[in-house]
Design brief:
Number of domains: 1
CATH topology: Four Helix Bundle (Hemerythrin (Met), subunit A)
Number of helices: 5
Oligomer: single chain
Strand content: under 5%
Shape: flat
Distance between the termini: 64 Å
CATH architecture: Up-down Bundle
Order of helices and strands: HHHHH
Largest sheet: none
Radius of gyration: 22 Å
Helix content: over 70%
C-alpha cells in the first residue's frame, strides 16, 4: 500500500472532541520519547550493576517492560508503515536491520535475566544491552526517522502516533486485566448463585 493510498478523505479536520482524544505526538516524537526513557533506565541499570546494588532486578523488569511494548508497537505499526512508504532497497534495508536488532536485544535481555544480578557477568551484559539499544535508537533517529518524515508527511505521522499510543495503552494494561474486566460480571453472578444455593 503506498503512502498516497492511505491518505484520508478531503475533509481532513476532525471535530474538536475527537482531536482532544488523539495523541498530540506524531509517531517519530513518540518513539523518540520511548528511546529517551529506555536510555535513562539503562544508564541507571549499568550504574547499579557496576555498584552491585540490589535494585538491579527491579530496574531490569522495568526495562524489559518498556522494551517489549516499544518493540511491539514498532514491529506491528511503525515499521510496516515505513516499509510501505519508502522506496528503494537502501531504505527497505533499514526495516530488516531494525527487526534483526530487536531480535539481538531480546537475546541479550534473556541472557541478562538468567545472570546473578550482583555478578561481573551481569554488569558486563547490562553494558552490552545498553550499547545495543543505544546504537539501535541512534540509527533509527538519524536514518529511519528522517526518511519516515520525508516519505509519510505530517498528517500520516500524526495518525500513526495515535495508533502507537493506543496500542501502547493496550499492551501496558495487559490482556489479563482486560479479560478479568470482561469476565467480572459473570464471576460475580456465579458467586451470587452459589450463595443463594447455600442459603436455600
Amino acid at each position: 500500500m503506498s503512502a498516497t493510498s492511505r491518505k484520508r478523505s478531503p475533509s481532513r479536520r476532525k471535530p474538536a472532541s475527537r482531536q482532544n482524544n488523539r495523541s498530540s505526538m506524531d509517531a517519530v516524537s513518540l518513539l523518540k520519547k520511548d528511546h529517551q526513557t529506555v536510555r535513562q533506565l539503562l544508564g541507571r541499570l549499568e550504574s547499579s550493576a557496576e555498584n552491585r546494588h540490589r535494585d538491579s532486578t527491579t530496574l531490569l523488569r522495568q526495562i524489559e517492560n518498556e522494551l517489549k511494548v516499544h518493540t511491539q508497537i514498532e514491529e506491528q505499526i511503525f515499521y510496516p508503515a515505513f516499509k510501505d512508504a519508502v522506496e528503494g532497497k537502501e531504505d527497505e534495508h533499514l526495516y530488516y536491520e531494525a527487526l534483526v536488532e530487536h531480535h539481538v536485544v531480546d537475546l541479550v535481555l534473556r541472557e541478562l535475566k538468567s545472570s546473578a544480578n550482583n555478578s561481573e557477568e551481569f554488569a558486563a551484559k547490562a553494558k552490552v544491552l545498553k550499547d545495543l539499544v543505544e546504537h539501535h535508537a541512534e540509527e533509527e533517529e538519524t536514518e529511519m526517522f528522517p526518511k519516515a518524515r520525508r516519505a509519510m508527511g505530517t498528517a500520516e505521522l500524526r495518525e500513526l502516533g495515535h495508533q502507537l499510543q493506543e496500542r501502547k495503552q493496550e499492551l501496558a494494561a495487559g490482556f489479563t486485566g482486560r479479560i478479568e474486566k470482561i469476565l467480572q460480571p459473570f464471576i460475580r453472578e456465579a458467586r451470587n448463585q452459589q450463595r443463594r444455593r447455600r442459603a436455600a
